[in-house]
Write a structure and sequence with these properties.
2 domains, 10 strands, 21% strand, N-(1-d-carboxylethyl)-l-norvaline Dehydrogenase, domain 2, NADP, Rossmann fold, binds ketopantoate, binds NADPH dihydro-nicotinamide-adenine-dinucleotide phosphate, alpha/beta, five-stranded mixed beta sheet
Length: 305
């Protein structure tokens, strides 16, 4: 199976790198700057005692030949529209597309370009970043990828995709309820992102202040209410995990959105919070805290512009 990984950043570098290590036929679609770094240093995965150096196949936009069987989309939201056009020559009638972006906004864009039947749902649970040297640094011992068909019947090639992704050094799960999984992850990332980005602090820094835990719990309640109204209530155990993760005193936890924010980089504010607020309004759910986060990040983004 020919696999194209779009982007060799924090998520694409890790999952694509693991697939390369496992001997799968993987090519990374990269832009010139990233290509230079990977060609000079190799694709390096570091952190948690690891020092892996790989020399994967790279391809640039305009050099793609023939369709791939699986396209793993690992760009950030701001790069999605351009990446969709770059990757189009690699998508044929039998290609399946597996995006790992947070939220749900990207599904509509991918479906509009490539068709309903081609786009799977996906959830990545990792904590990785690209460091100053261009290496993929693992910050936490999490490596899991969950994917599945968003509607029945599932594409025939999905079983083969699952076989290719399995046994490659990360947890690979074929889900029969991927939309619910995506909503669950969205509630988690929006809760964690809202608490840390609005307060400009890690989970522990917020939880350690009077009122911090109550604030975080109120954020989780808003996010969960939207998911429930949308028809994807987060199971109680999963919600309890989310609540525990965002209220833990002393915890250094923070999402990639917070790392981007504190580094002065572009953030996925509209995709993670704005989209949730819009859906809440349509569903009649009150989300004053999420509206505040959206406004806060809009101000941040306007100052960057
Ligand atoms: N990092 C994490 O721990 C997690 C992130 N996520 C989500 O995954 C998604 C991806 O995030 P992440 O991997 O962190 O982002 P990164 O910015 O680290 O990586 C994205 C990569 O995509 C590349 N890219 C963008 N456009 C193109 C293009 N047209 N062609 C080729 N490459 C392109 C960028 O290349 P260039 O270097 O040229 O800019 C960059 O290397 C986000 O939605 C994020 O929220 C989900 C779970 C965990
Ligand atoms: C919260 C986390 C680490 C889970 O994978 C994530 O999705 C992110 O940082 O973007």
């Amino acid at each position: 199976m020919r696999i194209l990984v779009v982007g060799a950043g924090a998520t694409g570098g890790l999952f694509g790198g693991r697939l390369v290590q496992a001997g799968r036929d993987v090519t990374f679609l990269v832009r010139p700057g990233r290509a230079r770094v990977v060609e000079e240093r190799g694709l390096r995965i570091t952190g948690l005692g690891e020092n892996t150096v790989l020399s994967p196949k790279l391809v640039r936009a305009g050099e793609l030949s023939g369709p791939y069987d699986l396209v793993l989309f690992t760009v950030k939201a701001a790069g999605l529209a351009a990446a969709i056009e770059d990757v189009a020559p690699a998508v044929g009638p039998g290609t399946l597309i597996l995006p790992v972006l947070n939220g749900l906004h990207h599904i509509d864009e991918l479906v509009a370009r490539f068709g309903e039947e081609r786009v799977l749902g996906g959830v990545a649970i990792v904590m990785t970043t690209v460091d100053g040297d261009g290496d993929i640094r693992r910050l936490f011992d999490l490596q899991s990828l969950t994917y599945g068909a968003r509607a029945e019947p599932a594409p025939a090639a999905l079983a083969q995709v699952h076989a290719e992704l399995s046994g490659a050094g990360f947890d690979a799960t074929l889900s029969t309820g991927i939309l619910a999984d995506m909503w669950g992850k969205w509630v988690f990332i929006a809760s964690l992102g809202a608490v840390t980005s609005l307060m400009r602090g890690t989970v522990g820094e917020v939880a350690d202040q009077p009122g911090g835990i109550e604030f975080a719990e109120a954020v989780v309640a808003e996010c969960a209410a939207v998911a429930e109204a949308a028809g994807y209530p987060v199971p109680a155990a999963s919600l309890a995990n989310t609540r525990a993760a965002v209220t833990e005193p002393g915890s250094p936890r923070a999402p990639s959105l917070y790392r981007d924010l504190t580094a002065g980089l572009e953030v996925e504010g509209e995709q993670i919070f704005g989209d949730l607020v819009d859906r809440a309004h349509k569903l009649g759910v009150a989300v004053p805290l999420l509206e505040l986060v959206r406004l806060n990040l809009r101000v941040y983004r306007s100052r960057r512009a």
